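Retro notes - structure team

What went well: the batch runner handled both jobs without manual restarts.
What didn't: labels got mixed up in the shared folder, which is why I'm recording both outputs here explicitly, each with its sequence directly above its tokens.

Job 1
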Amino acid sequence: METRKAWMALAVMAFLHGRGASGEPQRHTFTSGDHIITMDVRFSDPYVGKRLAFYDDTDPLKEICLVGNGDTGACPKRFVGTVATVMFTVKRARGKLRRKTSIREYVTVTAQSPDLPPRPPFDKTQVLTNGAINDLQAFGYDESDISEGEREAERQKSKERLWRLCRQELYLNSETVPFATINWRYTLDAIEIVRVQGRQNRGGEFK
């Protein structure tokens, strides 16, 4: 946390969705045993001084605010940055999913600009609902405490200087080998997938 900017750099797996992510998803498909995992990624347009909030899939009117590394708190009133929504869908090639099928994510920072505060590894497991779960990616800051006359200059300076690279390992249930490893690149203008590694499908390919 800097003196005047409340930083956000979160990867939160939860039953949530954000507003603003649209367009055709970027799709990747993986396998784990007889499970087929589909990952659909949607990227939002950059936020430029807009309020950032997410909503509970089970209660669309329930607003949920996330700050920092995914902690709960007041919604950022003037968020500057980007958001991506990732939906994971899990099916079995034969039979039904077992009860409490879960996905665990382990996220580490591999490199970042020196202006960013350090971020410890993020480790969380969530149980799927109806075979699906969402993963929220957000990177940016709340400019509410910056005077209006200084905001534009701060935006331009931050766009030029701020970036982060993260490695996300994804595990199904209690497995110790990830079914996918995703390398992400974050800037204030875009969230991008740099590299995807996953277990091969039976045909010898993965997407």
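Job 2
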Amino acid sequence: MALVVRHTFWEVEEVEGVRGRRRAFTDSCVGDSGCFGDCNSGCDLSTVDTCSTSDMQDSSWSESSFWSDEDLTPRVQDSRTTIVLRGLVGTLSQADFLQVMDLESLQYDFVYLPTDFKKNVRFGYAIVNFISAKAARAACSLLEGHATWKVEWSDSHQGLDALIQRYRNSTVMHESVADMHKPLVFVDGARAPFPAPTEVLTFPPFQNKKRSSTKKNVNAKKIPACKPTENRFTTIVLRQLPKRMTRCALMQVLKDEGFEGSFDFLYLPIDFIKKVCYGFAIINFVDPQTADMAMTHLMSSATISDQMAVEWSESHQGVEALIERYRNSKVMESNVADSHKPILLKRGCVLPFPGPSTQ
């Protein structure tokens, strides 16, 4: 005889060749091992100790407590703490957003409202991390009440550590970017310093906007003071130069801006078919401090062009890397005019460019 559970009934099956009918009993009929006969065979239900009728009538027992879906589904603890708020108006300031968060008494430790610097408005969403999963779930419930806001969990980064690693080396953390546009971290509700970058930050390209044309400052020849920097880069790229720019004209501009003798490599690529430059130039400075000064100064100067952009070179850094890049290039062949080739300099004097290392 085998005992099979069917919902809230106990069903007894005859096995091992024993003939007889299959019989079903309610669970109140199950007691000791001798209580599996016909319910009319004299079984004294008043003596049943397990799942007795009196036990079933107890207010603490319910069928759902045994057979609820919650018991059948494994419980997974949600440890997510980072949400994305969408549907924000583009003119919402960082201060106003934080005020909303504080009015709701939310416990957050990271806030970032990305900015569209071309249009000078927010992108319409915010990334917020909370101090715990419980605080994040509570925030979701409260913030979903805002008419135009949509709350969702972040799919790309979860947790304060992941967010810090995502943004600490981002160009948005460059010192030239206003605090109102940067990600913020908080400790016990108070703003805390953002962890320092582990790499040299490149100059944000969005800072290179049109500037109103102004007369050159009488002190323009003086190199402006620059804060101490850990930058180890020396090679910059000037972009959006006038198509009619020449190498000699560019060198004269650098001289007028106070950088004569401060750079040892310069190259203005030329479109030989159209006889104009490609609109960018590569310049290497003698040391990182001078390069940083030049970067800062040229960004704030409209001498060459109101639209000129300045950025660190990502492909090659340093004079040695640049020599290796161009010494075997076709631009160094004898049929190319010297004015179209990259040049090496020392204290303002042009040096012979090393010959090719391959035939």
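One thing worth noting from job 2: The longest strand covers residues 125-130.
We'll revisit the folder naming next retro.
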